[in-house]
Known about the structure:
By secondary structure, this protein is mainly beta. It has three domains: about 5-310, no CATH class; about 315-415, Immunoglobulin-like; about 450-665, no CATH class. About 0% of the residues lie in helices and about 35% in strands. Strand 46 (about 620-625) and strand 47 (about 630-640) form a beta hairpin. The longest helix is centred in the last third of the chain and has 6 residues, at about 500-505. The chain is elongated, with a radius of gyration of 31 Å. It starts with 6 loop residues before the first strand and ends with a strand.
Amino acid sequence: MKSFSIMRYLRYSFVFLLFAGFLYSCSGIIPEPEPVIEPQNEPQTEPAADSFDTYILHASYAGGAATKTEFGDRTTTNSYAQIYWSEGDAINVFYTEGNDPVSACFVTSGSGQKADFVNQSDIDPSGSRFFGLYPYDQSAVADFGASNITTTIPSSQDAYNGKFDPKALLAVGVSSKVDEMAFYNVCGGLCFTLKNSAKYSRIDFSGNNNEDVAGAMIISLKDPSVPVATAASQGSSKVVSLTRANGEKFVSGTEYFIMIRPGEFKNGFKLQFFEPQANSASKTETCSSYVVFKRGIFACVEEVDNGKLGKIRDGEDLSVNGETANCYIVSSAGSYKFPLVKGNDSEHVISGVTKVATLWETDNTSGSQTAGSIIKDVAFNGSYVYFNTPSTLKNGNAVIAAYSGNKIVWSWHVWVCSGYNAQTSSVTLKGKTKPMMDRNLGALSNASNSALSNGFFYQWGRKDPFPGAIESYVSADGGAGTYMSTTAGALKTAAASNNGTVDYTIANPNVFITSTDGYWLIEAINSLWGITISGGVETAVKSVYDPCPPGWKVPRARVMSNGQHVVSEEAWAGFGTNDLNWGPQGRGISLPLATDGETWYPNNGYINREGKVIMVGQYSCYWSCTPYGGGMSYAMQMSRDMSGTLQFNGIQYGKLNGEGHSVRCIKDN
């Protein structure tokens, strides 16, 4: 007799509660297992090998409850599943005979942390790569070339008091060597209780956007530690039905569990409640918020029949790979969230916040603005700010403020532009190395000669936007323009003499600081947008006050190396007259791209030191993060005077920081 050893560690990470299950054999379910407290010890020696008629697989869980039918203490933060094998557990072991994948059923008669799984068949798996599947599924198949297993997440699940259907506890694994295999959980789930004296015998779960939640699934094992379930082309299900056996009813206050395919539910989900023998639901409860069901984690909701689903607030996280910012882009209708932190300081949650609210909204026109037309339902918890868009997305911009009492402690710009993907639509200018956005910060278009391309104005070093002009061109001398209309009314201003500090601008993000000398800061701070100079060496990093979205920042104007300008790394330097394509009447320029094509820069005017928008269609500046010194900074400037003379300066020295100019973001590293 030849023995065959594989060590298997089943690793599950379940926040808030532990997975539980029942015994499962190759022939069926054993409803009530015998709990075993003491783990089985791993054998130290193997029997002599002289035939292929018995194979012993040593499988292991890592501590926890006595059996998979019991939960641990879920009152502690970050409690993780620690699941033990139970007597009668069965798994598929997939291997190859020749070029053909083969499945064998292995069953354990032991239980506890470690147990021996045995197969008694005339097979020779020596030298094979192994896939594993728990629980055993006779119809499951493996594809070693594609590294996947096709199996089923049950769409009909049995409801047990305080336990879940073992058919739904899917785990898969890949052998790292002949005697080791780690299993990882596949599904996510919903844990819930009912409030009222229950009268239901069946509860259906479904997504509000027709998502595939169960049925035939293909489990990818390309990264064995993160198996991914996708719906098969046939046999997937949009509904999971959780049913009490023998016509019994659900019990109030008892926990029940529904297992589903992990994924995003952009429009939320619903539960439908059925009475015995009924063909239609007598009650429906809906969560309309974006939610994510993560692999191996239960979402726990109490009293789902008492309106609790409607109060769930979650959202698609707008931070990118953990990177936060002062501006976030929304390109489709839905529910969203972003971390409650200052700019790109993702390590420190803002403390002392008592409320969040929309400070102002605009659709970038002069039309009447209605509160809640761009974003609505703004809320927060200790870690995130949440908001929704209307079900039909309306393009525009908004600013959300966080308060401590009546004082604003931080604010964020929400840029709503349907279908806009800053990454895929970015452009690289001719002779440059870093991509830039194809439009101004806050703009709703990149079309030439369109007022929607104007975007917003910024005082240098400040993180918060001010509305731009609604015109693409004003012919009169001075080009006095009209501000975009916002829900906050006319532009608010305050004199720098009494208010020219960073602290004041944080507490008053919608107040433009006016001045007689053009400096909004009483004492200049040259590092506000990330440039620092020490020992003659300049360092440029995105700062906490940078107004650009995650992955983007205000560009540098001048990059020096060995006393020379590195033109390829500078934003706009190096362009000559022959590179420019001026728009009609000098309303802007199109700059050439590294590939074929051009990108539009509107002459959208600016806010002068008195708080008035002027020179619309005749003049513009685009801020860099590079300070010039003395309350001034470098910028790209272009203009058309009343005599028709056109001018372009890719590195304009000494623009006054108290003026409001445009920002065109560049890729951050």
